[in-house]
Amino acid sequence: MTSDTAAAGSSADALAGLPPSPAVWCSGLRKRYGRRTAVDDVSFSVARGEVLGLLGPNGAGKTSVIKMLLGLVRPDAGEVMLLGRRSSDPRSRSAVGYLPELFRYQPWLTAAEVLDLHVKLARLDVDASERRECLALVGLAERAGDRVGGFSKGMQQRLGLAVALVARPELVVLDEPTSALDPLGRVDVRDLVLSLKSRGVAVLLNSHLIGEVERVCDRVVILDKGRVAASGTLAELLGQREVRLRLGGLDRRAEDRLRAAGSVTRSGDWLTVALPADDDGVTVPDLVRDLVGLGVRVHAVEPMRISLEERLLAVLRHEEPGS
Amino acid sequence: MTALTVAGLTLREASRRRVVWALLVLTVALLALSAWGFSKLIGLDTELGTMTSGEARLVASVLLNLIMFGMSLIAAIGTAFLAGPTLAGEVESGQALAILARPVRRSQVLLGKWLGLVTFGCGYVVVAGLAQILVVRVTVGYWPPSPAVGLALLAAETVVLLTLALLLSSVISPMASGIVAVGLFGATWIAGVVGAIGGALGNEGVERVGTVSRIVLPTDGLWRGAMNAFQDPGALLQMGTDEGGFPFLSEAPLAPAYLAWAALWIAVIWGLTALSFQRRDI
User: Fold this and answer.
1) Is residue B45's pLDDT more than 60?
2) Which residues in A lie closer than 8 A to residue B87 (C-beta atoms)?
3) A single Pfam family, by name (chain A) (predicted)?
């Protein structure tokens, strides 16, 4: 009896010691619409408190993937777990907030009533002041009593953000959250995502605005033609750095030394050396020292960093393999 | 819980979209016209002389059925056109996305929509129908033999049609679903009249048209049951058997088996709608 209790206690401890299940876990998602394959073998996960960016061209299958995660579209194959529950169980969405790409709310309700409805559907007890705060957070405090039918598109998207945030989510899925917003609104969304991240809320962000993604995301999944073309942390994806050099008096020994540092491409007077991802910061000084030692005249050395946009374009144009 | 929330939302939509007001105006106009018409019945000079109160009651009973048919038509068209957009329209516009991403079962959302529409449709039929019966009572002193049964059957007819409209709207576009549902309603009524004429003429083949259509879509069968509950029991005798097939008199009350079939029909159609909605990609 005592040993049973002790065993139960220790297994509970062991469970408590386990890291929480990921906010999103999906494996082998597949979806065909007629003869067109929209999503093909997509797997990824979003850890608790992590911000994951979903990137890809139009028709890459981003929205289909999001809808499959939320049970809005039935996958032909694959599994989804949300916050530790199978997505076939509606309770998996209890702490999920969602702003759809196509954001429409009941035009005959007021903004406050839309939030009330979603709180009821989420079966939560969110008091009125918290709901008001939520509207204030997206800049709609003044319009709480106005019918949604009279809202502009940007205001409806702001309302959608409030709907996604109102039921104390642990995971927020934002599908193109800034498509109808002005530049100020975009900054608001960026701040909002960063504030969610600081509170440990996981965010899945689908956006065409790469700069936005680069600023707020911890990791990125790039989809192309329904498949994962590349994925990794920003450091992994952008970790590849380059150095541009303008040199004089190059000989074979110097060229061999350059190649030892990384792959070399030449454009006019300039040579570009791609540095290894695990570069610890000594490759460039060592290279310059050795080149000078070999009698090469060093006119210019320019370290470069690849932007997410360049990386995305390279992946989509199949110029380099995804990591 | 989810179902009740959605039912409340559906009723609020009906009231805020001014469907209620439009129906109210239409109904009040119909009631006022009928009150005026009925008040002229008593003492009406015909070629055969002044109409007696007994004859007036017979005419009132036929006219009550005629007006009730108008009322059921308003309810049918109203709910069918409300039922289509409420489900399919929300999916098309994107309103359903945010709702269905909540921790809700689709069948519960559907049940909520259905309950809201049933409350709205039945509420309208009962209130408007009762008002019409009272108008007839005040103007010509006619009170139907079983008004409660009649109103309940009219309400059931509305439920049948809106359930069908919901199923159609999960398969075809919202507007088309309303048109098809009302079209089927009308076709079944005509088939019922044709069948009754066939019965009066003793032509079994023609009579079967009505029977089959009443089984396929129970609106006409329920309507005939309702008419029977509203009409004067002596009306058929007075009209004579030769007048069988008259579209606003019914020969017999509904059999319990037919009521059971109508209930089963509603359950099956509802189940099909739930299945289709469950599998639908939003």
Assistant:
1) no
2) none
3) ABC_tran
Among chain B residues, the shortest Cα distance to A82 is held by: B103
Chain A with chain B: Cβ pairs closer than 8 A: 70
More confident residue, A193 or B68: A193
Q: Express each pLDDT in A204-224 by its tens digit.
A: 999 888 888 888 999 999 999
Chain A positions in Cβ-Cβ contact with residue B95 (cut-off 8 Å): 104-106
Q: Where in chain B are the domains? A: 2-279
Residue partners of B149: CB distance under 8 A and separation at least 6: B225, B226, B229
Interface test with chain A among B97, B99, B106, B113, by most A beta carbons within 10 Å: B97
Share of chain A above pLDDT 90, in %: 59
CB contact under 8 A, A104 and B94: yes
Please give the Cα distance from A113 to B34 (Å, whole number).
41
Q: Which residues pair with A247 in a beta bridge?
A: A298
* Cβ A216 vs Cβ A194: under 8 Å: yes
User: Structure pTM?
Assistant: 0.83
Whether residues A172 and A90 fall in one domain: yes
User: Does the CB of A36 have a partner CB in chain B at under 8 Å?
Assistant: no
Same domain for A245 and A231: no
Quick check: is A17 in a domain?
Answer: no
Same structural domain for residues A277 and A147? Answer: no
The predicted complex's ipTM stands at 0.83
A74 contacts B101? CB cut-off 8 A: no
B101 contacts A96? CB cut-off 8 A: yes
How far are the Cα atoms of A29, A225, B210, B225 from residue A100, in angstroms, in the given order? 20, 21, 49, 48
3-state secondary structure at position B153: helix
Residues A208 and A248 in one domain: no
How many domains would you assign to chain A? 2
Expressed as residue numbers, the domain containing A264 is 240-305
Residues A87, A153, single domain; the answer is yes
